[in-house]
Amino acid sequence: MNLKGRSFLTLKDFTPEEIEYLVELAASYKRKKKQGVPVDKLRGKNVALIFEKTSTRTRCSFEVAARDLGMGVTYLDPKSSQIGKKESIADTARVLGSMFEGIEYRGFEQAIVEELSTYAGVPVWNGLTNEYHPTQMLADLLTIKEVFGDFKGRKLAYFGDARYNMGNSLMIMCAKMGMHFAAGAPKEYFPSEELVEQCMSYAKESGATITLTEDAMEAAKDADVLYTDVWVSMGEPQEVWDERIKVLSPYKVTKALMDNAKKDAIFLHCLPAFHDHKTEIGKEIGEKYGLSELEVTDEVFESAASKVFQEAENRMHTIKAVMAATLLGEDAG
After folding, report:
1. CA distance 186 to 184
2. Which of 112, 107, 103, 114 is nearest to 129 (CA)?
């Protein structure tokens, strides 16, 4: 398997075999990390991390992974980069591509990371856009495989707003990898018909199924994995909370929902999660709307079924695999 020179923008660009290879490579890097085995094959190389949207897990994952591989890291925060403001995306890509061996982008439209990849001349990695979150998917696959020993044939149910990066990416991931995907969401929050149709074609090849339902209990029935995300994404206006809380409250992941899944079902969340009042926003929303939790109850989040911190750690190992595979090719292992 040789992915050298490839960008990692969406799982749609990769075959099931390539995706599984990246998961296995990540598992190998995780074992080596735990054993203290060095993997710094990319000494002397450098990567740029462009963050138009800030993040704890994505930034730390890329920085630690890059340094473990021996690379230098330059972080460009929302105030440090002139991308699309004083300098076009194409010009930024050509400048950074001449100085760095790889570029990560976390921000807004998918078109931005696609244009970076077109002009950079080096691999570009999608740390999150409005439409897709592919590195998160690899972490989820690794976590599911660690828990169950496999992922093909497993059922994953996603609850909440399924129109954007997480709903889109989980549906693509399941369809590609032979997993059964169910979205429990209001009809107006279903993924786009175009993407559903595309995923149906993937599912036909892999043996997966896709179910979109407004009934949360139906979505959870016999699921191996229950998954949710914050109801209001970064960058959306505060006013959106009124609508989302009203419409999405029936899709909160509760113990009752977990009990309707398989007995050994697990809970996943890409984080951060509003499961208590221990954050400024959580406290503010809680006081305003009289809610103790939002998309998931604290009971579920803190339960033995919750694998969210194992999942969060796996971001680093899977990102390491992506960077190594696209920069080293066959030598990545």
Report:
1. 7
2. 107
Which one of the listed residues 199, 270, 275, 317 is annotated catalytic?
270
Q: Is 229 in the active site?
A: yes
Q: What digits encode the pLDDT tens for the residues 168-189?
A: 999 999 999 999 999 999 999 9
Catalytic residue among 59, 110, 136, 244: 136
Task: Check residue 223 and report its DSSP letter.
Answer: -
Of these residues, 59, 106, 275, 317, which one is catalytic?
106
How far apart CA 12 and CA 199 sit, in angstroms, is: 9
The alpha-helical segments, DSSP class H, found in the chain are 16-35, 57-68, 89-99, 110-120, 134-148, 165-177, 193-206, 216-220, 240-248, 255-259, 280-289, 298-301, 308-328
d(C-alpha 108, C-alpha 83), whole Å = 12
Question: Is the pTM for the entire model greater than 0.85?
Answer: yes
Which residues neighbour 225 within 8 Å (Cβ) at sequence distance 6 or greater?
A: 144, 154, 155, 156, 157, 265, 266, 267, 268
What whole-number distance in Å separates Cα of residue 327 and Cα of residue 325? 6
What would the pLDDT profile of 252-299 be if each residue is shown by its tens digit?
Answer: 999 999 999 999 999 999 999 999 988 888 888 888 889 999 999 999
